[in-house]
Amino acid sequence: MKNTNEPPIHIDQQVDLLEYLDAVLRSKYRLLIAAIFSAAAVFGLSKFVDDKFTASGIAAVNINENPGGVAPESYRGSDALELLEHDFIIDVAPSNELDRLLAKLNSFEFTKYFIDKRGLLPMLFPNEWNAESASFREGFVPDYRVATKIFREEHVGHSHDEKSGLLTVYATTHSSDYSAEIVNHYLADFNAFIKQRSVETMNSRRDYLERRLSEVNNIEVQRSIYRLLEAQLGVESMIHARENYPFEMIQPANPPLYKSYPSRKKWTVLAFVGVLFLGLFFVIGLVILRKMNAALSEYKARVGKVQAKPISGDEVTSQTFEEWIDK
């Protein structure tokens, strides 16, 4: 007859913490040795990784995000200009002027301009550059799409603090002096880039005005064109006179004293702690597997005894009745 008071076999039938603690204590030296050797291996392998240095500088944004308007307090042009003349000569500042400038700072056009001006292609493609001949290997043509992607993702970046309005620019290279040099030239070259584009726009407008001046014969229209040309000359003078527009470097980058990558100490500590915890989980897992094997062996032995024992008709009826009640 089946003994209903006998508890079923489960793996967690008896949870003995001392058993796990004993297994951990018996393996403590092996765990420590494995963690130490792993940390030493990680530290040794990190020596094969090239050091990188990150320099950063802080710049102020010298723009006026007020788009202006026709109201006296919102009018940004000179009082000597009519509204249409002002709109033709002086660009109206859009409400998202800062966002537009940051987008230009991260654009493909300026990045390509900066790479060419500073000769950064050898740094971006070091495996393809031959230092002895000062040229790329035969058959290699630099792809500026790849170059700008590497430049923005691995070497130069910027972040804007909306609360203070300051712009932080950082650069990472294999030389501390070179990182600081790139940061200090980055915004200066962007200012020159913006000035160059503004001058090109002014030249196209002046060419248009001079062409119209030669086409018209009306004295009043010619006076209006001369008035625009005079204002155009003033705007061009302002563009060439501004040295810190739109960004002014207020804290230039200095060569960093310490490398930013790789963090050998951090890697070593993480490797030591990680291997130690993995070893603890492994030891506890072995104890659980051993208990599972013991429980399965006991279960198989008990089932074998029950199958070998002959069962009478009364016992079968009683067992069937008990199973029906249990259900």
What features would you describe in this structure?
With 327 residues, the protein is an alpha+beta fold. The protein has 2 domains: 17-48 and 264-326, no CATH class; 53-251, Bacterial polysaccharide co-polymerase-like (2-Layer Sandwich). It is built from 11 helices and 6 strands. The strands form 2 sheets. A 4-stranded antiparallel β-sheet has the order 4-5-1-6. Strands 2-3 form a two-stranded antiparallel sheet. The protein is elongated. The chain starts with 16 loop residues before the first helix and ends with a helix. Mean pLDDT is 81; it is low at 9-13, 67-72, 75-81 and 320-327.
Helices and strands, with pairings:
Elements: H1 17-26, H2 28-46, E1 53-61, H3 83-89, H4 97-105, H5 108-118, H6 121-124, E2 129-130, E3 135-136, H7 144-155, E4 156-160, E5 166-173, H8 176-215, H9 219-241, E6 247-251, H10 264-308, H11 313-326
Antiparallel strand pairs: 1-5, 1-6, 2-3, 4-5
Helix pairs in contact: 1-10, 2-10, 5-7, 8-9
